[in-house]
Amino acid sequence: MHETGGTETRKIVDCDVHPLIKSVDALSPYLSSRWRERFVPRSIGQSSSNGFVFARARDRYPHPNTTYRLDALPPNGGPAGSDPEFVLSDLIEPHGITTALLLPQEHYGVVRFSSAEAAAVFERANNEYLIDQWLAVDNRFALALTVSEHDPVAAAQSIRDLGRREGVVGVQLLINKTMLGSRLFDPIYAAAQDMGLAIVSHQNGSEGCYSFAQGPAGGAPRFYGERHSVLPQVGAANVVDMIMSGVFERFPELRVVMVEWGFSWLGALMSRADHLWMKNRSAAPHLKHAPSEYVVKHFKFATQPLDEASGSKEFEAMFGIPELNKMLVFSSDYPHYDTDAPDVILGKIPEPMKDAVYWQNALDAFGSKIFRN
Amino acid sequence: MLRDFCRFAGVTRFETLFPRMPEGWARHFDRYEWTGAVDLASNHIRVSDRFSHPPLEAFEPERLTVPSIVIPYQGLIVNGWADPVAAAVFVDALNAHALDQWAGDNARIALVINPHDPNGSAETLKAHRGDSRVGAITIPLTTAMLGQGIWDPVYRVVEEANWPVIIHFSGVEGAYLGAPPLAGAPHTNALSRHILMPHLAESNLASLVFEGTFYRFPRLQVVLAGFGFKWLPSLLRRMDQEWRNFRSDMPWVKDKPSAMVMRNVWVTTYPAGEATRPDTWEGEFSDELSRRLVFSSNAPFDSDDEQAVEAALGGKWLDRIASNSLELSGIVAAGR
């Protein structure tokens, strides 16, 4: 195992790094023969440049280019993000990253599975693979176990089974048809809270694609760029739903990290929620505090993709959202096409917020286990 | 003086409209469940059906103290109707009533179009060209996004007549089957729905921009009313970035999306109470963008007046909004 990197003065936690399996065969040791037969030779295929299971309907919203950086392809083959050693040399060491939170991407395709059993088996195999093949390689890797809504009780059990493994710091909960405020998720939230694991939400690609998936407001966007412009709405809607449904009254220690949903809409959302709640408190009987107080206490929001402001005044205002310094965490989204280069983005963070965004807010969300050394 | 770009008026009894309906249709609508639902339809925000609202007062245009665009809000709810034919009859009767009864020196009517039939609506609108009582049109939102070509016949008439298009939610979005969804999945909490309504404005604005609507209709002016306005800078940055990243995927979009918004789109102040502490957000509004904000009262529902706007946003913004309102009024007037 390598030694932890990072600078002496400032740790860096990258809350969005996507690992992929090298080939679907890699999961074979984690599957029974019955499931190996189902997954390995048939439905998924044996080679891929960017993963084996997809959530986004690629004949509906095809990406205009490639979803990954060409320079992130490992020299020894396999999809971008499939070689932990190359991720270390390509991302982590050059940028002095102390911890990279792994948000596995192949799980995203699980939202399309119709079989709850298949979803659980695939998720479990992939989680165990990453624990063995990535967390064991270097102590700068941390993992969010991934679970879906197919069978929340089974998901909760999986969290309890694997949640104490070294390097496991969170639970990536896939958004599918049910809003995250639903009591359906209570077994998952209970397990996460008991185990001290933060819930992590990352867009999975299914949004706006299927009748069983969530989508943006209004109707169907016409093409990829239009859809991508309004995708943050789904994250925002689930933030509101969790608060209004009383999740944080039921699970007061729960922390949620929203990744790749943006953050610059927070100021408008929080002030609107507070304003309308003040006018009509009885419409949300679960709430004991203003909605924005729940946001600040329970949520973190990742930086990528960082908005490009037109000038310093707008940029400063973007970071002037009340109490943003308590909510913002850094993310690169490596190895995707729109990776935010850590040196560029971290350099842009206003100096008074740097420690908070670099690592302190991640520490608040994930606890001290986010640093494995 | 402010000008109000979103003031509502409604009938207190649906029966009032029966004489304006084609033969036989009054009987169709004369059923106690529907006539008795006038209160339901008057809760246009539809925060919750469990809240009661006092009966509406009859709208009296002579009592308006500022020039206002008056939206017959009960027409908006046809976006949740299952019967598109009945919707046409209803909005035609409501529009006729509004023009006769609610237009005045300070009140110009926003004609509600039947969103289930854009072609038919365009033909109906043509009959109103040159009618000085008409100040705008309003399109109840459907799942056909506003940038789609099916709206072109409407925009063609509207642009020629120099009427702005005012967009306001009806309140059934995200609730009634067939009405536009809100972001995510169905929300059971009514307050959540209300909080998330601005997403409808975002999505339709993205549609208008990315579908190239403003190239086809360069003089079209769209007013997104009642959604607040603080959400706009974040969306513009996002759209500009998508355009920059994927310009080759949308070769028909030749300008930065935000530039189109500066020319063709307006947002309104209500609810100003969500925009207190301008020091926390005004830096996101360039001088150019701040010129796109006009006043809307939302009266006679929960509403803002000039004092409320000044209390929330301050005198500097109030002056700017008054100036912007004059500019939008001038753009509209210039075409007549």
Automatic annotation (TrEMBL), chain A:
UniProt GO MF annotations: carboxy-lyase activity; hydrolase activity
Keyword Plastid: no
Entries under Gene3D superfamilies matching the protein: Metal-dependent hydrolases (3.20.20.140)
Species of origin: Chelatococcus asaccharovorans
The entry's keywords: Hydrolase, Lyase
GO terms, biological process: secondary metabolic process
Pfam families in the cross-refs: Amidohydro_2
The protein's name: Amidohydrolase family protein
InterPro entries found in the cross-reference section: ACMSD, Amidohydro-rel, Metal_Hydrolase
Domain Amidohydrolase-related: 13-367
Annotated Gene Ontology cellular component terms: cytoplasm
TrEMBL record, chain B:
A Gene Ontology cellular-component term: cytoplasm
Source species, domain of life: Bacteria
GO molecular function: carboxy-lyase activity; hydrolase activity
The keyword Cell inner membrane appears for this protein: no
This protein's UniProt keywords: Hydrolase, Lyase
Domain named Amidohydrolase-related: residues: 77-307
Protein's UniProt keywords contain Lipid metabolism: no
Pfam families in alphabetical order: Amidohydro_2 (PF04909)
GO BP, sorted A to Z: secondary metabolic process
Protein name: Amidohydrolase family protein
Lineage: Bacteria, Pseudomonadati, Pseudomonadota, Alphaproteobacteria, Hyphomicrobiales
